[in-house]
Amino acid sequence: MIAMSAPAVEGAAVSALRSVLGRVQQAAQRSGRLPEQVRVVAVSKTKPVSLIRQLPEDIEWHFIRNLQSNKVKPLLAGVPNLDMVESVDDVKIANRLDRMVASLGRKPLKILVQVNTSGEESKFGVDPSGCVQLVKHVKLECPNLIFSGLMTIGMLDYSSTPENFWTLSNCKAEVCKELGIPEEQCELSMGMSADFEQAIEMGSTNVRIGSTIFGAREYKKDN
């Protein structure tokens, strides 16, 4: 259950989530898949913790933004229900996560390799040409990590959405072929509020929905 502190906001969020799930179901059907084959990750970025309550004890958290090495220990120690890190984009952060999972005695952590499909310098993610090598490193050198698939942010203005999605799909095909991974075991995390239906139709198994559920992001204003 997702609940907000104010009843009106709570009702709006629940109603919005219900609408999103319906749209996901329809998009999944158009892609020839079952709705349960697509995961919806509700992203509450910029929303205060106080707005989200009554969460079940077995909730599974995903970490999405760029992760710095010095933040790995606080993240893993502070979020026992962390199920997946969606933003591993280089060997250094993969190694840091692997060592810290072992040090804390946690169960193996699922990770997605983030790919910079748009070629923008401002975006994090491994270049598509280096995707296979990074996945290979995770699988062979990081026993405490479980490679689960690939992730991309895409362009903020969504002007090249299909190209970004095709690039990630091509990376998946190459990774699976080179490393002998069954394609059904390689997830694709792509698609957000403005384009998640198209992403599902193009193969996404994990969509990240924020503003459509929680409302517009709220950024602090500089004084």
UniProtKB/TrEMBL annotation:
Q: Which residues form the Alanine racemase N-terminal domain?
A: 81-217
Quote the Gene3D superfamilies the UniProt record gives: Alanine racemase
Membrane-crossing residue ranges in chain numbering: none
- Write down the superkingdom of origin: Eukaryota
Q: Which UniProt keywords apply?
A: Pyridoxal phosphate
CDD domains in the record: PLPDE_III_YBL036c_euk (cd06822)
Question: Which PANTHER family has this protein been placed in?
Answer: PROLINE SYNTHETASE CO-TRANSCRIBED BACTERIAL HOMOLOG PROTEIN, PYRIDOXAL PHOSPHATE HOMEOSTASIS PROTEIN
- Protein name per UniProt: Pyridoxal phosphate homeostasis protein
What the protein does comes down to:
Pyridoxal 5'-phosphate (PLP)-binding protein, which may be involved in intracellular homeostatic regulation of pyridoxal 5'-phosphate (PLP), the active form of vitamin B6.
This chain's source organism reads Canna indica (Indian-shot)
